[in-house]
């Protein structure tokens, strides 16, 4: 019995502690009420917080509690779908969650309101993510109170103004990860000094922040723990300052999309721990640096979109760990066999838009290769039909390449059984080879080739195909009905395809059939397409009316039916396409008034109704007022009102006068027809009776006998009536 006493005492003590702390079987009551009030302040259109009922808030979705104290310590309401966001947050009630150490509201939309200042009161926060949450305004200085914060993500929200709240970020002495991508730093002149005060920061992401200038010097570089520095897309106009190369702990350096003009800085070799280097689009010039081969830990190198010239040095073959290499859009020439051809770990190789020579032998050692872009080069990879590559590609781009002595489908592609994306645009291919394509293919681009005739039925076997581009060929048969039904992108423009517009692709989002020979009416079944579709049927032979059902495509962004033979009125239902940005109905035979419903299209930025037979006043509401170019209504002589110079008032008065004259003329015609009808009726009635009596003797005898009998009866009735009247007298 005595041995059980300590256990009983411990159990009793925990029970008393639980009572004092207010812990029940669920979360604390004050915190549960705070969460309920917080929920009431949210607009939750998709009812994502439907689980927030009952007493135990620790079991609610997105809520995490401490196993020891029962306090709410985590609130994870991130919206990864970006389709069902919380909105209109009056969120101050969450202030009562005093033990909160993790808060994630990313991906929602809080109506461009400021980041709430009370977030600075959560002194225990270690993780705060407000990325893409729709906040606006200055970053509040109160966030500087979060001395235990380790992860801060404010990306895609507001702006940092250190003139108003200078130095707040330097107070976050525990910070490890900082992401302020797309947060404007226009008025943050001291951003580098503030960041340099963070002793433990490991990752800094400031993509597209309008940094403007690159501070040239720092009195002391305090980034001793920094492993990632991402300053892409800031248009910094200077060379890379020396202090960057003194951060020897750097593993990932991303400076692409800046104006770092000049020669390639050899100081990069100081960064011996570097695993990824991005200097793409930085206006670097000169020869490809030979010393790059000394950065032995590199796994990713992006030098694309520069002006590097000369050959690729053999020393690059020393980068045995390199997996991703992008040298596209430069002025490189020569072969790659001695350098790039030795990179056995290479997974992704991008050499597009250079003057490089590449043959099958140059790829013989690249056994790990999965993504290859060699477009716009002098390539010959079709010398032998029996070549079997050592790799299995997922994506291949060979646009504008010489793929062999005679342009035809590369036979070695048959061996690529995992291929998902294939681009062979402008390769001069003439033969139909769809039976040789792997069934795994999802994206196929054979545009600007010399394919002719009809598409073979074997194309229907590509059941995984999502995007098909056969534009600008010589296809001239009727549209096939056996194409894969899962297509989302179909581009067949600039061919000679005939038949009716297809309606059997329920998942289609982009439909390009312009410059063909399609004919017939637009079927209402076209509305079976997806709700965020782009439709281009211009320059065909379509006729009939535009179906009213087209307005059911509420998510349609672009509609081009120009250069056809469509008639009738513009359907008012087009006004229901609230997402419409482009509408082109020009060069048809449409008539009637422009529906005023078009004024409700708030996203419309391109409109063309020229060269039809439209009439009446041009609607002048909302978005339509922004279209001041009169050419979008040209070729419709009966339209009036701004932006046209034709005055609708005079036009309407003239129309009223013409209508009055027309009514007067119509009245005179009606009177003339009345008298004419009476005269004709009398003549026809007279001769119908009298003519019969003159021509038929039997009719004449009967007629006069009937008249005599009638007069005799009338005479007798009159005599009898007079006699009765006399008796009464």
TrEMBL record:
Checking PROSITE patterns in the record gives: LRR (PS51450)
Q: Name one GO cellular component term.
A: plasma membrane
Record carries keyword Isomerase: no
> Is this entry keyworded tRNA processing?
no
Q: Where is the Disease resistance R13L4/SHOC-2-like LRR domain?
A: 264-423
Leucine-rich repeat-containing N-terminal plant-type domain: which residues? 30-66
Q: Which residues belong to the signal peptide in this entry?
A: 1-26
Where exactly are the transmembrane stretches of this chain? 672-695
State the UniProt keywords alphabetically.
Answer: Cell membrane, Glycoprotein, Kinase, Leucine-rich repeat, Membrane, Receptor, Repeat, Signal, Transferase, Transmembrane, Transmembrane helix
Question: Which molecular-function annotations from GO does this UniProt entry contain?
Answer: kinase activity
Cellular location(s): Cell membrane
Q: Which InterPro entries match?
A: Leu-rich_rpt, Leu-rich_rpt_4, Leu-rich_rpt_typical-subtyp, LRR_dom_sf, LRR_N_plant-typ, LRR_R13L4/SHOC2-like, RLP23-like
Q: What is its main location?
A: membrane
Bilayer disposition of the protein: Single-pass type I membrane protein
Q: Which family does it belong to?
A: Belongs to the RLP family.
Q: What is this protein called?
A: LRR receptor-like serine threonine-protein kinase
Organism placement in taxonomy: Eukaryota, Viridiplantae, Streptophyta, Embryophyta, Tracheophyta
């Amino acid at each position: 019995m005595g041995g059980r006493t300590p256990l009983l005492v411990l159990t009793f003590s925990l029970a008393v502690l639980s009572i004092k702390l207010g812990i029940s079987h669920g979360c604390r009551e004050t915190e549960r009420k705070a969460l309920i009030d917080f929920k009431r302040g949210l607009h939750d259109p998709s009812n994502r917080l439907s689980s927030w009922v009952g007493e135990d808030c620790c079991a609610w979705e997105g809520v995490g509690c401490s196993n020891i104290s029962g306090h709410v310590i985590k609130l994870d309401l991130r919206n990864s779908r970006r389709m069902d966001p919380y909105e209109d947050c009056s969120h101050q009630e969450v202030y009562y969650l005093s033990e909160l150490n993790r808060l994630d509201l990313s991906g929602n939309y809080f109506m461009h309101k400021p980041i709430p200042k009370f977030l600075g009161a959560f002194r225990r926060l270690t993780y705060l993510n407000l990325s893409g949450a729709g906040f606006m305004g200055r970053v509040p200085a109160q966030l500087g109170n979060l001395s235990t914060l380790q992860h801060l993500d404010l990306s895609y929200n507001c702006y940092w103004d250190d003139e108003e709240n200078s130095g707040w970020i330097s107070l976050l002495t525990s910070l490890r990860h900082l992401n302020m991508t797309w947060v404007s730093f226009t008025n943050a002149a001291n951003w580098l000094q503030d960041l340099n005060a963070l002793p433990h920061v490991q990752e800094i992401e400031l993509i597209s922040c309008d940094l403007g200038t690159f501070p040239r010097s720092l009195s002391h570089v305090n980034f001793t723990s920094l492993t990632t520095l991402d300053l892409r897309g800031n248009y910094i106009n200077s060379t890379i300052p020396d202090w960057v190369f003194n951060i020897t702990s750097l593993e990932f350096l991303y400076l692409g999309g800046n104006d770092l003009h000049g020669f390639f800085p050899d100081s990069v070799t100081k960064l011996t721990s570097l695993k990824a280097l991005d200097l793409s689009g930085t206006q670097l010039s000169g020869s490809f640096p030979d010393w790059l081969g000394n950065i032995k830990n590199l796994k990713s190198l992006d030098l694309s979109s520069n002006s590097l010239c000369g050959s690729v040095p053999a020393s690059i073959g020393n980068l045995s760990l390199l997996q991703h290499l992008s040298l596209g859009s430069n002025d490189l020439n020569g072969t790659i066999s001695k350098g790039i051809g030795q990179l056995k770990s290479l997974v992704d190789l991008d050499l597009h838009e250079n003057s490089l020579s590449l043959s099958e032998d140059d790829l013989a050692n690249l056994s790990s290769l999965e993504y290859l872009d060699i477009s716009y080069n002098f390539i010959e990879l079709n010398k032998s039909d029996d070549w079997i590559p050592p790799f299995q590609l997922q994506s291949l781009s060979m646009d504008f390449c010489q793929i062999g002595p005679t342009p035809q489908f590369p036979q070695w592609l048959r061996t690529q059984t995992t291929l998902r994306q294939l681009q062979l645009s402008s390769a001069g291919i003439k033969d139909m080879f769809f039976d040789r394509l792997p069934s795994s293919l999802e994206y196929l681009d054979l545009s600007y080739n010399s394919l002719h005739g009809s598409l073979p039925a074997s194309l229907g076997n590509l059941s995984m195909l999502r995007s098909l581009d056969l534009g600008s060929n010589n296809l001239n048969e009727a549209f096939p009905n056996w194409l894969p039904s899962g297509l989302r992108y179909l581009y067949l423009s600039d061919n000679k395809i005939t038949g009716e517009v297809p309606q059997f692709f329920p998942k289609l989002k982009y439909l390009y059939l312009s410059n063909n020979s399609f004919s017939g009416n637009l079927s209402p079944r076209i509305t079976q397409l997806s709700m965020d579709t782009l439709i281009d049927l211009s320059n065909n032979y379509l006729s009939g009316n535009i179906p009213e059902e087209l307005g059911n495509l509420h998510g349609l962004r672009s509609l081009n039916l120009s250069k056809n033979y469509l008639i009738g009125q513009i359907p008012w239902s087009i006004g229901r396409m609230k997402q419409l940005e482009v509408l082109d109905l020009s060069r048809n035979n449409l008539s009637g008034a422009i529906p005023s419903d078009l004024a409700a299209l708030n996203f419309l930025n391109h409109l063309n109704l020229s060269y039809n037979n439209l009439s009446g006043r041009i609607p002048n509401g909302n978005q339509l007022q922004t279209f001041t170019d009169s050419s979008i209504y040209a070729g419709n002589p009966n339209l009036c009102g701004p932006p046209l110079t034709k005055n609708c008032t005079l036009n309407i008065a003239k129309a009223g006068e013409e209508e009055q004259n027309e009514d007067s003329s119509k009245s005179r015609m009606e009177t003339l027809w009345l008298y004419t009808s009476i005269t004709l009726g009398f003549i026809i009635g007279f001769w119908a009776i009298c003519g019969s009596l003159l021509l038929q003797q039997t009719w004449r005898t009967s007629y006069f006998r009937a008249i005599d009998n009638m007069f005799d009866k009338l005479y007798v009735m009159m005599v009898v009536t007079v006699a009765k009247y006399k008796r009464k007298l």
